Amino acid sequence: MIIAGEVDVSNSEALASALAAARKARGEIVIDTGDLRFIDLAGLRALLAPASFVTHDAVRLRNVPPYLGRLLRMLDY
Questions:
Q1: Which contiguous run of DSSP H or E holds residue 4?
Q2: Residue 57 CB partners (closer than 8 Å, separation 6+)
Q3: What is the pTM for the complete model shown?
Q4: What is the residue-wise DSSP string for 9-64?
Q5: What is the pLDDT of residues 4-61, one digit of tens each?
Q6: CA 9, CA 6: separation in Å to the nearest integer?
Q7: What is the radius of gyration, based on Cα positions, of the chain?
Q8: pLDDT at 29
Q9: Which of 77, 56, 52, 24 is nearest to 33 (CA)?
Q10: What are the φ and ψ backbone dihedral angles of 43, each rounded to 5 degrees?
């Protein structure tokens, strides 16, 4: 799955729905974030929500932009 542009409160529900559908189809979700220019807290929650530490489902991010990498490190993700 590729995410591009901006993810914020206006479209985070659509992202959450798409990721939930992908999670049902596969256990692990691989998301390319290389073209993601902006993400707010609502978008970040939608992006990371499919990760379940109980069932060991995984969200793997590829091509993480530097700003998102810093944010994920701050969150200890």
A1: strand 2-7
A2: 23, 27, 28, 29, 50, 51
A3: 0.81
A4: TTTHHHHHHHHHHHHHH-SEEEEEEEEEEEE-HHHHHHHHTT-BTTTTBEEEEES-
A5: 999 999 999 999 999 888 887 776 789 999 999 999 999 999 988 866 554 555 788 9
A6: 10
A7: 12
A8: 84
A9: 77
A10: -65, -40
